[in-house]
Specification:
The structure holds two protein chains of two kinds.
Chain A (H helix, E strand, L loop, with lengths): L1 E2 L8 E3 L2 H18 L3 H6 L1 H16 L6 E6 L6 E20 L3 E17 L5 E14 L4 E3 L3 E9 L22 E17 L11 H7 L7 E9 L2 E6 L24 H18 L3 E6 L6 E5 L2 H12 L20 E7 L5 H11 L3 E6 L11 H23 L3 E4 L4 H14 L1
Parallel strand pairs in A: 11-12, 11-14, 14-15, 15-16
Antiparallel strand pairs in A: 1-3, 2-7, 3-4, 4-5, 4-6, 6-7, 6-8, 9-10, 12-13
Helix pairs in contact in A: 1-3, 5-6
Chain B lengths: L3 E4 L3 E3 L2 H16 L4 H16 L5 H5 L2 H7 L5 H21 L7 E3 L4 H23 L11 H19 L18
Antiparallel strand pairs in B: 2-3
The chains are: A alpha+beta, B mainly alpha.
Chain lengths: 425, 181
């Protein structure tokens, strides 16, 4: 990332040091002559020479703002970036913000390379390094009138949690995959014994069943199996809220003290679900429920998973139009995981709509375990009301047949429990 | 390990120039044999100037250096100390305007300043030695040096003022303490 602003009137801004130097030189030289003291005249030499040198340095130094480049470097599990400074000035004054929390002001030479390393506690989009810089020259007696800004934006991938089994849609329609479908075909378990029909393979003829159950000579019975089918998993993330564990930080942008946030949970849940689904050979689609939200169409395979993870990692809190929820198209017979805090009911309405369309819908509650410390009694009461309203939303979802999973340490077990009835069928 | 690490090479804290200036004024006023009252006033002024650089009291506190030289008989040692203290104090007071207390200053960034400081000091100390060893101009033999010196001062003033590339249009007022807006 590079930044260099254009300015038609670049110039150095002087500090009072120049005038002080000139004044001191003239006054000391004049006073020394007036009182016939050569030692006083000698005191005028340093400020006079200094002023001449710095004025010369001002004329020689180009007035272009510093050029700032930021590029990522290997840093293990840390976010590591290298900041390269190119300026004609002697010194560059930099204001560096790391991981949107730590601000450091440094003075470095005109050509310098700095390294930043940050450990982030949150996934998702992040301004890993923000830099503002201006040129200084001649003992900082002159500063550049233009400021350069540069930003290195990163998408921090969430952790992936191991999930053994995902719930499946009640009716699988695909013809490729690893799940037993509802249609007759190859690869699955026994379905039924059926009279031979044109198109049936001869090797499917069950001779024992034919001998036992054929009614007329020449009748043949074939053994049919279920087809193996792929499932379609749709992950819909509600990015309207990003609420941390510490309730006192709600409504602020204080991510340093917020603890794990709901979007951290949502991103982790989305990645875990996508990884498990692709690992099982299923199709995965990803949608952010926001007007400008990103969508990744359904697909499978490791490349598609990389695309989905990239989209998940770059999903941040929605902007001003966050109350608006769009309804992305979903294929028939999908399992839809709606990832939300379910505070305002918009995501719940979508879940109900999809459930009414016959999809299997799982409401993944991404609200973290709350820390209500440092709340006033009024705030505690408001929180209780909010949570009570949320319980009502979940009751409505449950009565409509929407499964609920809370994304915590037991989420994988809960998803496995939801998957079990289908697996046992 | 800390969550955020910034590597800029060897550096000093931004408070060092301010502490150095206070120590310089206190040390110079003591070495030049100033009266205790003047010493206290100079130190008080430089401390206030170091805490609030935009007051300009750091420069004001350096006034005691030529005063101390003026109030005493000519002495080469005192003159050399005063030449060094005045110059270094002016540079530190200039830097204080741009270097916040909680900043870091890379040592490599101070290299041009150090080179300029040494260069100016070499010339200034040599001239100081020459000026002190010259006989005092109270006799008739060196009376001609007075109008020559006056002319030199006038030329110096013109040179310094012409060195400033004054823009035609009024430029934005220079911030006394430089900071990002």
């Amino acid at each position: 990332m590079t930044s260099a602003p254009e300015s038609a009137s670049r110039r150095w801004i002087r500090t009072p040091a120049i005038l002080v130097g000139i004044g001191a030189a003239v006054v000391l030289a004049g006073a020394g002559l007036a009182v016939s003291r050569p030692d006083i005249v000698a005191l005028a030499v340093p400020p006079a020479l200094w002023t001449l040198l710095v004025v010369r340095a001002e004329r020689r130094a180009r007035r272009d703002p510093p050029e700032i480049r930021i590029q990522g470097v290997p840093g293990g599990d840390l976010l590591a970036d290298e900041i390269s400074i190119e300026a004609e000035a002697e010194t560059v004054d930099l204001l560096i913000e790391q991981a949107e929390r730590r601000v450091t002001r440094v003075l470095v030479p005109g050509r310098a390379a700095l390294t930043t390393r940050s450990r982030t506690r949150h996934s998702g989009p992040l301004d890993a390094v923000r830099v503002r810089g201006r040129a200084l020259t001649a003992d900082a007696a002159f500063s550049g009138s233009d400021e350069t800004r540069a930003v290195r934006r990163r998408a921090v991938p969430p952790r992936v949690r191991e999930i053994r089994e995902l719930p499946l849609a009640p009716r699988l329609t695909g013809l490729h995959g690893s799940h037993e479908g509802s249609r007759p075909g190859h690869g699955g378990d026994f379905r039924d014994i059926h009279p031979f029909a044109p198109g049936d393979e001869l090797r499917r003829v069950d001779w024992r069943a034919t001998a036992r159950a054929a009614r007329r000579p020449g009748d043949l019975l074939v053994r049919r199996t279920y087809a193996l089918s792929d499932a379609s998993v749709v992950i819909a993330m509600d990015a309207a809220d990003d609420l941390g564990e510490v309730v006192a930080t709600w409504g602020t942008a204080d991510r340093a003290r917020s603890g794990t946030t709901s979007l951290d949970h949502a991103r982790e849940a989305a990645r875990s679900l996508a990884t498990t689904a692709v690992g099982a050979g299923d199709r995965v689609a990803y949608h952010v429920l926001d007007k400008a939200g990103r969508s990744v169409r359904g697909g499978t395979g490791s490349r598609h998973l990389a695309r989905v993870v990239s989209a998940i990692s770059s999903t941040g809190q929605a902007g001003d139009d966050s109350r608006y929820r769009r309804t992305p198209p979903v294929p028939q017979g999908s399992v839809i995981a709606v990832l939300s805090t379910f505070f305002d009911g918009a995501a719940a309405d979508l879940a109900l709509l999809w459930r009414a369309s016959g999809h299997r819908v799982i409401a993944v509650d991404t609200l973290p375990e709350l820390d209500a410390a440092r709340l006033t009694p009024e705030q505690r009461l408001a929180l209780r009301v909010l949570l009570a309203e949320r319980d009502v939303v979940f009751r409505d979802l449950s009565s409509a047949g929407v499964d609920r999973v809370r994304w915590d340490d037991d989420a994988a077990t809960a998803l496995g429990a939801l998957a079990r009835p289908r697996a046992a069928r | 390990m800390r969550d955020d690490v910034l590597e800029i090479g060897p550096w000093i804290p931004g408070v060092v120039p301010r502490v150095a200036l206070v120590a310089l004024v206190a040390g110079a006023s003591a070495a030049l044999g100033l009266a205790a009252g003047w010493q206290a006033a100079a130190v008080a002024a430089v401390i206030i100037g170091a805490v609030w650089p935009r007051t300009g009291l750091a420069w004001f506190s350096l006034v005691v250096v030529p005063l101390a030289v003026l109030w005493q008989p000519i002495d080469l040692g005192h003159t050399m100390i005063a030449v060094a203290a005045l110059h270094l104090g002016h540079v530190l007071a200039t830097m204080m305007l741009a270097v916040p207390v909680r900043s870091r200053v890379s040592l490599a960034a101070l290299r041009p300043t150090a080179i300029r400081l040494v260069g100016v000091q070499v010339v200034a100390q040599a001239l100081a030695v020459v000026a002190i060893v010259l006989p005092r101009a109270d006799g008739a033999g060196l009376a001609w040096a007075a109008p020559l010196g006056a002319c030199a001062v006038a030329i110096l003033a013109v040179l310094l003022l012409r060195g400033l590339d004054t823009p035609r249009h009024p430029e934005p007022r220079a911030p006394r303490e430089q900071s990002f807006e």
